[in-house]
Amino acid sequence: MEQFYQVLAWAGVFFYWLMIAAVTMRIVFKRRVVGVSLAWLMIIYIIPIGGVIAYLLFGELNLGKKRAQRAKVMFEPFADWFQRLNDCPGHQPELMSEHARPLSDLCENRLGIPALSGNSLSLQDSPQTILRSLIEDIHQAEASIHMEFYIWHPGGLADEVATALVMAAKRGVQVRILLDAAGSMRFFRSHWPKLMRHSGIEIVEALAVTPFRMFLRRMDLRQHRKIVVIDEKIGYTGSMNLVDPAYFKTDAGVGQWIDVMVRVTGPSVAVLNGIQAWDWEVETGNRFLPQLPECSLPSQAEASDMIQVIPSGPGMPDEIIHQALLLSIYQAKESVVITTPYFVPSENLLHAMKGAAHRGVTVDIIIPDKNDSIMVEWASRSFFSELLAAGVRIHRFHGGLLHTKSVVIDSTHCLIGTVNLDMRSLWLNFEVTLAVDNPEFTKQLNWLQKEYMSDSSLVDRSKWEERHISNKLIEQFFYMFSPLL
């Protein structure tokens, strides 16, 4: 019997080694970012069995068989639809600035989505302004309202939005709402879904979270886009979820969330509508390809309102938003200002920011002083010393949880949308960004960033280096896992 147990023990060791070797080979042959691969290898070696299980559940971008099949079928008709946007008179690449043209070329070649002019943009910089504007537009809707959000949290003005949608549906407006199942869990447990469906509103849970599904697809893959399209004429996108900050995470100890949204009219609304239609079909299998925009030749003034819509995530070209960010920073000649709630940059982005500072570009990064994610907070701090040494200025915002995601280059060109400067947004989640080639709009965003800076404290390099050794150890611990955050 003792011999039997010995054989069993050796067999167990052999099969464990075989399992570790197989997963190691899989990680190596995936040829991902080296930091990501090393982080996963560390996890599977440090945590017996559990590390392998964690990798199988969360280590690879698995959208699920059904969604992957839908996306494959969808690609050709949607690619054709986006290609037809090139015939829109608003497609005027020769009028783009020197900053916008390379970015447009990148997106057109990789995504097949052209930049379009003839848009009107409004920067809305407070939750009350955003929600009141949205409610007013919903009340004026005549034909359709398409919405998708990561988080819908009941309470306050968010309930007024829900009421406005119910009223719109009852007067015959077709309303479709796509919400991430994990982010909007509180909403789906409230009375609102039943009430909305009863009024004729279509509500769909994106990427449903159940114990069974964890074996079929990656569970931490989330629908992080925020898009509203009303009557195919008015569009909204930006950093804000459908929440009233006065009712959202009030006990988190980080203050109210600070967000922006961009209200858009013009041909780029059709692009946002096309992305929303893509997401709807991936989740439901139902196709609603929108009408192509009714474009007219833009005036000289309108030609400067150029927008490049950049969707990223599953189904989109790998690293597209990462490449767009790198290209924008490398083009900077005078200044780069970045706002992000979660700052865990890739190695390439870190080098780009340091390189910009080294060549004399003023680089400012504005992040919240308090964060709702402890792991991200510590991981973010692990990059401070390197950036400060290069001359990058880091501002810690005290007016709440700064949730705005924006990049302004040389005060003339900007990126604004849903993308955080962390690995989840850059490599994993469904996201959308607007690259705006409009000096006036960019100045407004830059002024807002300066307001954030005025309510921030600048990290002093000498004082930062004097922090306690225990803090440095914790930072380095979470730095090891930063490629996975």
TrEMBL record:
Cellular component annotations (GO), alphabetically ordered: plasma membrane
Ribonucleoprotein in keyword set: no
EC number per UniProt: 2.7.8.-
Pfam families: PLDc_2, PLDc_N
One example GO MF annotation: cardiolipin synthase activity
Family indicated by similarity: Belongs to the phospholipase D family. Cardiolipin synthase subfamily. ClsA sub-subfamily.
Listed name of the protein: Cardiolipin synthase A
Catalytic residues as annotated in Swiss-Prot or TrEMBL: 224, 226, 231, 403, 405, 410
Membrane topology of this protein: Multi-pass membrane protein
Database matches in PANTHER family: CARDIOLIPIN SYNTHASE, PHOSPHOLIPASE D
Described function: Catalyzes the reversible phosphatidyl group transfer from one phosphatidylglycerol molecule to another to form cardiolipin (CL) (diphosphatidylglycerol) and glycerol.
GO biological process, one term: cardiolipin biosynthetic process
Keywords recorded for this protein, A-Z: Cell membrane, Lipid biosynthesis, Lipid metabolism, Membrane, Phospholipid biosynthesis, Phospholipid metabolism, Repeat, Transferase, Transmembrane, Transmembrane helix
Location(s), subcellular: Cell membrane
Domain PLD phosphodiesterase: 219-246, 398-425
Species per Swiss-Prot/TrEMBL record: Photobacterium lutimaris
Regions crossing the membrane: 7-29, 35-58
Enzyme class, broadest EC rank: transferase
Reactions catalysed according to its record: 2 a 1,2-diacyl-sn-glycero-3-phospho-(1'-sn-glycerol) = a cardiolipin + glycerol
Superkingdom of this protein's organism: Bacteria
